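User: quick one, sequence for these tokens?
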């Protein structure tokens, strides 16, 4: 794809795509990457909050030897280990040479521009990391020009999808969705138009209208190829392997979940659902999952994740990686 010509004074990044897992962040990233002026890596970083907290521990990275030590340490993180093509893995020397400065922000931009194939002229660089939905304020402070697209999926389908993918407890999932989505929406209200909230269902129902709205948010013209994927965005769930937007991948909870389970989820998330114009049948008081139950469900979720690794014969390969992900993701 030919890069778009530079647009003097226009927004050129960073663009952060955020949202709960299984909410369409991969699909949205891949559709936006079809735009000639957008380049976002296919692997999510998730490590920025950790970098911000520990940046001083790595010393003066403007010294190339020190930068190389930093490089050897961080390339064991999940972001680099998920690189399928060893030839695409940035070298320490190349990364160092691309840094405009050696702040966490400057080093991150150099990596994202390289891996997202977003050269400086006329290209918007960015990242797709679901967990950053909890860090809008911190990211906006570190990147004063940053813009965000927050994609939200109906919590009932979100709970169903996350249970099918990883066996996670639906009530804990509903509570996490409620807390994180509401917090992100509140944070966005204070960021003066820098956060665009879209619904996953609207993207499925009318991709062009939704992508036109996003194109306006990032100060670029809509391009027709944005509505078509060049390769599959998902390897899990009902859209695994699909190379097109699957319009009917919504409201599956109506058939897959029993009425009492739907009611339990709506009791937790109903207020936020209504604020986003989702239909809600529950009319009772809002409830929360008690802390002790959240702890029990978290332990159960961890066990199910480990068990899935064991069944696939990947336990030992993934043990260290999952621990590192846990440490570096917030």
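Assistant:
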């Amino acid at each position: 794809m030919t890069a778009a010509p530079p647009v003097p004074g226009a927004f050129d990044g960073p663009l952060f795509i955020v949202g709960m897992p299984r909410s369409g962040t991969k699909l949205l990233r891949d559709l936006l990457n079809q735009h000639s002026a957008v380049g976002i890596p296919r692997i999510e970083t998730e490590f920025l909050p950790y970098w911000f907290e520990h940046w001083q521990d790595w010393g003066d990275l403007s010294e190339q030897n020190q930068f190389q030590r930093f490089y050897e340490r961080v390339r064991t993180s999940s972001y680099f280990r998920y690189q399928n093509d060893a030839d695409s893995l940035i070298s320490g020397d190349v990364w160092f040479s691309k840094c405009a400065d050696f702040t966490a922000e400057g080093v991150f931009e150099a990596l994202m521009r390289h891996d997202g194939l977003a050269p400086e002229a006329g290209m918007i660089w960015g990242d797709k990391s679901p967990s950053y939905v909890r860090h809008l304020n911190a990211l906006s402070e570190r990147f004063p020009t940053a813009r965000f697209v927050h994609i939200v999926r109906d919590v009932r389908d979100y709970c169903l999808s996350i249970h099918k993918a990883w066996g996670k407890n639906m009530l804990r999932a509903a509570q996490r969705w409620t807390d994180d989505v509401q917090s992100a929406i509140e944070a966005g209200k204070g960021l003066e138009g820098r956060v665009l909230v879209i619904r996953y269902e609207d993207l499925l129902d009318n991709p062009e209208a939704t992508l036109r709205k996003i194109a306006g948010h990032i100060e670029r013209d809509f391009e027709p190829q944005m509505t078509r994927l060049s390769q599959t965005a998902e390897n899990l769930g009902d859209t695994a392997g699909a190379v097109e937007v699957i319009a009917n991948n919504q409201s599956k909870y109506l058939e897959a979940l029993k009425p009492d389970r739907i009611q339990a989820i709506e009791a937790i998330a109903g207020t936020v659902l209504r604020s986003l114009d989702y239909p809600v049948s529950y009319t009772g008081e809002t409830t929360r999952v008690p802390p002790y139950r959240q702890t029990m469900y978290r332990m159960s979720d961890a066990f199910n994740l480990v068990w899935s690794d064991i069944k696939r014969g990947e336990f030992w390969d993934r043990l260290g990686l999952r621990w590192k992900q846990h440490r570096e993701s917030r």
